[in-house]
Specification:
heterodimer, A: about 350 residues, two-stranded antiparallel ribbon, B: about 550 residues, mainly alpha, two-stranded antiparallel sheet
Chain lengths: ~350, ~550
């Protein structure tokens, strides 16, 4: 009787050695430092979001009449509903934080430079998708802040010249928030954006594999022979450690600070204070500082600059003597983001 | 880091994660068990009350069991926290090393529930004990009973009745809702009440002579007058000068918010011939919805905010006391805060109140405006906020028009004329100043106190049967068939006994009233009115020939 491995191999003609070779690319030694493994963290959290999201979707109803009550049912009645929902909420927060940290690491180590410009832009797309997923997810609860957050978001989009009205219409499935809006948000949140992200993540990793992980030379390291270590099992262990730590942190956050329910959406009553999730504070403050079309356009310009940064940086390095201008610009950018976020967090309106 | 170290860390983290999942599972199981009633909610017995619980679980297991199901028990608020007393309190006594008092007053509850205490103290509920000197009181103490003990009529076989307590009807009747004047037994056979103790701002008695006369048992426990205690009347006059009893609505010892949210709770007092609010509610669409949808009302919710925690149906608490989305979920313990008419007196008054929460009776517009601290309009706006969770502004405003019109119709057509006739009879000396000794006084009492209130309360809570058949129909019948004939008969009798001028004066008042257009049908006849109604019916429904 042929053994199981042989049975499989006859049908899937890939040997264990081939698999090992495929995965076992030598990993640069700097990846032993945990902060260089921050790319795996959002990917890991993304998987958590997919799994918990599917579980939540079993009960969630994307209709204005029943959305809030279905979330309430998940939170208060369904078995482990509170835990799953809380983990989903906290993993979203951590994922956005991890994406931002990962991007900062890439930025400050100059890992976006030639030949990795395309991967930087893929990463930017992933950041935007992550934020949009956060925004659409926030709106699904259909509590007061969800409803008004979506309304404010659509109104902001409306101020974009020429195409603003179209974007708003596409977002809300009509001129104003209506019975189709929630299902549109749900499809975006649970299908379109995750599918796009899966594709982008695949491209992101493929490019990394094709180009190899960025090599770094640290000043305090002696120049010596290139040191690497095995992806399997060594680097996988590092990722596993981060993953397990994340699960513990998520469980702790879910039990200590479980997701709650605000008042249900009331289209007739505008809440006194409308605030988006923390990751939009910076944009929200910016919009308050420079109201109207100017604010939206300037924000669009900033996003475009971030997209094109590898090329802008390259131009600066070629045309000027400021070789590491990007570091100082980055520091200024981080300070600006932190300052605007804190500003928005501390003010009531 | 070596691979071996990594493996160890992964094992540790994996174990920790597994533990966290076990913890989550434990929380989930505990939650489900509590929800299913299989496990008692967590109870924290503070050290101060451990001895009380251990002993009273034998002596009064019901009390302890109720308390264990309460939020108080979850939060570690137990016997001593509520029953503790200052040594100088009139009703304090040492009990196994702790100084306690039997009766927990709003002053005691206010130690933690300060805002609730203040709102309640400002409410009409807290003034419920004012009945102790009212017409109703006279009925119970004098007409139904006697303001004394008297000898029994004849022996009662099997029961040695030596003396009849004339106050029994007041004690067991009126005062159970309105509140008793709590009294301690005095060594001289009298009662010691708050009036005798003259408590200071802290509720401690200042008249030590009275304190010295308190009858105590061998353990030093003061003895209450059994007519005045037990009592959970809403306006109870307590020995410490506070008014009311929180357990009137929040029945002890579980102080269940669930119960306070249900109309049955209010129905202990708000029912019966003179103010059948509970029956009125039951007849209304609100009450019908409540009975049908009670299970959807989230009555056990930690908060109970209309529009957030429930919207299936309103209860008394919903409209008069509970929080809602429009007011940020604020509960009020002053149920008058949202009431714009008082339908209690013979003639309804607009509920403009002064700084002392008393109804402004000033008629001069400028003086009146200066006195108003919280206007009826404000109160109505607060109620409208509640209504607007389920009704549109047009609907609400039109309802209030209907309500106002009914109250004003009652006031103008029956109550004010009735008052004028009753006043004329007294002014002309045709009736005595003693209440209820003449037939017409019973007639008038029925008219406003029973039927008139029913009509007005029926309209206030959308109960058509109470507004009409138990209300205005009976008011009208009482007015035309009893009050007017009785007044005229008294005038005739006066004329026969030589009081012609007085009789004429009363007849003039009655004639002036009946000459008004709204009463013209009574003596002038209403021929043609039925024909008009029938024609209208025919126009509206295409029938009417065989109508009633």
């Amino acid at each position: 009787m042929p053994n199981a491995a042989q049975w499989v191999q006859e049908r899937l003609p890939v040997s264990g050695d081939q698999l090992r070779e495929l995965t076992n690319e030598p990993v640069p030694y700097h990846l032993k430092r945990w902060w260089f493994a921050l790319g795996g963290t959002p990917a890991y959290l993304f998987v958590v979001q997919i799994i918990t999201g599917i579980l939540l979707a079993f009960y969630y109803e994307a209709a204005a009449a029943s959305a809030y009550d279905s979330v309430r049912y998940i939170t208060e009645e369904a078995a482990f509903g509170w835990y799953i929902r809380s983990v989903h909420k906290w993993a979203a927060t951590l994922m956005i934080a991890a994406v931002i940290l990962h991007q900062m690491r890439v930025y400050f180590t100059g890992a976006y430079r030639k030949p990795r410009e395309i991967n930087w832009m893929v990463g930017m797309l992933l950041l935007i998708c992550t934020l949009m997923t956060g925004f659409t997810g926030y709106s699904l609860v259909y509590e007061q802040l969800s409803f008004w957050g979506a309304t404010v978001g659509a109104n902001i989009a409306d101020t974009v010249p020429y195409i603003g009205g179209f974007i708003k219409n596409m977002m809300l499935a009509g001129e104003t928030y209506n019975e189709h809006t929630l299902s549109r948000f749900f499809v975006l949140h649970a299908a379109v954006l995750p599918a796009t992200m899966v594709l982008l993540i695949a491209i992101h990793i493929m490019i990394i594999r094709l180009q190899g992980i960025t090599e770094f030379q640290f000043e305090d390291e002696k120049v010596g022979p290139k040191k690497t270590f095995n992806f399997f099992p060594d680097h996988l262990y590092t990722e596993l450690m981060i993953g397990l730590l994340l699960m513990i942190v998520l469980s702790a956050l879910a039990t200590i600070f479980p997701a709650t329910m605000g008042p249900p959406a009331d289209p007739l009553v505008t809440p006194e204070v409308i605030k988006p999730e923390w990751f939009f504070y910076v944009a929200f403050r910016w919009l308050k500082l420079f109201t109207g079309t100017a604010a939206v356009l300037s924000m669009g310009f900033i996003v475009f600059t971030m997209f094109a940064w590898p090329f802008i940086d390259d131009w600066i390095r070629r045309k000027t003597r400021f070789q590491e201008a990007s570091v100082w610009i980055g520091i200024a950018g981080v300070f600006a983001i932190v300052a605007l976020t804190i500003w928005e967090a501390v003010v009531r309106h | 880091m070596t691979l071996e170290t990594k493996r160890l860390i992964i094992a540790a983290l994996g174990g920790l994660f597994l533990l966290s999942l076990v913890f989550v599972q434990w929380m989930e199981t505990a939650r489900k068990a509590e929800e299913a009633g299989l496990r008692e909610a967590h109870v924290a017995v503070p050290a101060s009350s451990k001895a009380c619980v251990d002993c009273h679980v034998q002596a009064n297991p019901g009390i302890v069991d109720h308390w264990q199901g309460s939020t108080h028990a979850e939060k570690g608020v137990a016997c001593v926290e509520c029953h503790q007393a200052a040594e100088k309190d009139a009703d304090a006594f040492p009990h196994y090393g702790v100084t306690i008092a039997t009766i927990v007053t709003p002053r005691d509850c206010s130690r933690c529930h300060t805002k609730e205490g203040e709102q309640f103290a400002a409410s009409h509920h807290a003034a419920g004990g004012n009945i102790l000197a009212s017409l109703d009181n006279f009925l119970a103490e004098t007409v139904e009973g006697a303001r004394m003990n008297f000898n029994p009529h004849s022996p009662t076989p099997g029961k040695a009745v030596e003396s009849v307590n004339g106050f029994a009807s007041a004690f067991s009747g009126c005062q159970q809702c309105h509140g008793s004047k709590v009294a301690l037994q005095s060594t001289d056979g009298e009662m010691i009440t708050v009036d005798d103790l003259a408590p200071d701002a802290d509720g401690l008695p200042t008249n030590l002579d009275a304190v010295g006369k308190i009858v105590r048992n061998d353990n030093g426990r003061p003895l209450f007058h059994p007519g005045t205690w037990p009592n959970t009347g809403i306006g109870r006059l307590n020995l410490d000068g506070s008014r009311g009893s929180c357990s009137a609505c929040h029945s002890r010892h579980d102080f269940s918010p669930r119960r306070a949210r249900q109309p049955e709770n209010c129905g202990k007092c708000h029912l019966g011939p003179d103010h059948p609010q509970k029956e009125i509610f039951e007849e209304s669409k609100h009450g019908v919805a409540y009975r049908d949808l009670k299970d959807d009302l989230n009555l056990d919710g930690e908060t109970w905010v209309l529009g957030q925690d429930y919207s299936a149906a309103p209860t008394c608490a919903t409209c008069h006391m509970s929080g809602h989305l429009r007011n940020g979920g604020e509960v009020t313990h002053d149920p008058g805060e949202r009431i714009s008419w008082t339908n209690r007196p013979p003639v309804s008054l607009v509920m403009d109140t002064d700084i002392h929460h008393a109804i402004v009776k000033e008629t001069d517009p400028d003086k009146r405006r200066a006195l108003i601290y919280d206007s009826a309009e404000n109160k109505r706006d607060r109620m409208k906020q509640v209504c607007s969770h389920c009704h549109t502004p047009d609907y609400i405003n039109a309802f209030y028009t209907q309500y106002d019109d009914l109250v004003i119709l009652y006031n103008e057509k029956f109550a004010k004329p009735g008052q004028a006739i009753m006043a004329a009879l007294v002014n002309e000396g045709l009736r005595t100043s003693t209440q209820f000794d003449e037939e017409i006084e019973w007639t008038w009492f029925y008219l406003w106190h029973h039927e008139g209130r029913r009509a007005r309360h029926g309209a206030s809570m959308m109960a058509p049967d109470y507004t009409h058949w138990h209300g205005m129909y009976e008011v009208a019948e009482r007015f035309y068939m009893e009050l007017i004939p009785q007044a005229l008969e008294m005038a005739d009798h006066a004329a026969e006994t030589g009081k012609r001028a007085q009789a004429r004066a009363v007849r003039t008042v009655v004639a002036d009233i009946l000459a008004r257009p709204e009463h013209a049908w009574f003596e002038g006849g209403a021929e043609g009115e039925m024909a008009k109604i029938r024609a209208e019916m025919e126009k509206r429904y295409g029938q009417g020939k065989d109508g009633p």
